[in-house]
Structures are given as C-alpha cells and as structure tokens.
Amino acid sequence: MNGYPVSLTEVWAKDGEGGIDLTEKVLHVIENAENHFAPLYDGNGIDSGENPQNPPKCSRTILKERWDV
What we know:
By secondary structure, the protein is mainly alpha-helical. The chain folds into two domains: 1-37, no CATH class; 40-69, no CATH class. 38% of the residues lie in helices and 0% in strands. The chain contains three helices and no strands. The chain has helices spanning 11-14, 20-32, 57-65. The chain is elongated, with a radius of gyration of 18 Å. Its EC number is 6.3.4.3. Keywords: Ligase. This is Formate--tetrahydrofolate ligase. GO terms for molecular function: formate-tetrahydrofolate ligase activity. It is an enzyme of class 6 (ligase).
C-alpha cells in the first residue's frame, strides 16, 4: 500500500503469535528506513512552560502543524 508494509494481525485470537509478522515488519523499518526524527522539545518535559500566554515551543509546534485535530 503506497510502498508501506502492511500486516494483518490476529493478536486477539492468537495472542503474541498473531503479531509476529507485524513485529518483524516494524523492526525491519526501524533498522533500515531513513529517519528524519527531530524532538519537539528540549527534554525538560512536554509541558515545561508555566505561562499559558507563552506556551513551550512543542505546544506551539503542535498547534502550528495542526496535529491537535
């Protein structure tokens, strides 16, 4: 599907055995795919801002990118 790996899971019916294919695909992507990760905040906590009129950078980014909808 659009170049993304897909896996049918049956963890409800087969417990952990039903998720092995998904696990293998996730691990393959983690180990081999190009990564553009960048943290939203400096590591002091996602809600490190005290002043509601001046929210921390991560909150402004979430609102700007509309990830809250």
